[in-house]
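Section handout, structural biology tutorial.
Before the tutorial, make sure you can parse a SMILES string by hand: atoms, branches in parentheses, ring closures as digits. In the record below the ligand is zinc ion, and the chain has 168 residues. In the tutorial you will relate the predicted structure tokens back to the input. Do not try to memorize them.
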Amino acid sequence: MPLRSDWSHRNCSIARGLDILGDPWALLVLREVFFGNGRFDAMKARLEVADSVLTKRLGGLVDAGLLEKRAYDDGRRPRQEYVLTPKGEDTLPVLNAVSIWAEKHMPAPADRAHMDVVHSGCGQRTTSADTCTACGARLTAATTSWHSRTRSDQPIQLSTAAADGAAA
Ligand SMILES: [Zn+2]
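Predicted structure of the complex:
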């Protein structure tokens, strides 16, 4: 008979996934990168988080293979931003599910605190994490937008995994 510590950890894929995805800051960092906000200072401002916390989460997500660093030039000096890997992009249904569940069960403190998961192809809101409930299409980052009213009037098309060779 398995011990509690067996089924509660390595023998259960939910528990294994939570090794990475169970950390709230990790999911919020992924949210920012999906929103196209992968630069440290901008993420820090949006998340209102200490440098040390953000640095630790970014390092953990890079080590786990969900994010990678990519060089960019801000006109003054070379800098680095964080982009999704295919493994990171695969977390999209997890984030969609968290948002859809929260919209159903966690009251928003204000109208603008709502967020919709939108299928870009048909423009409709979906209430399923991986399939458009309006037209039946499978949702990928390339075909999904998030409409967070605290961010924009219109849905924002999500970032996808960096193309091969784009990472530096
Ligand atoms: Zn659709």
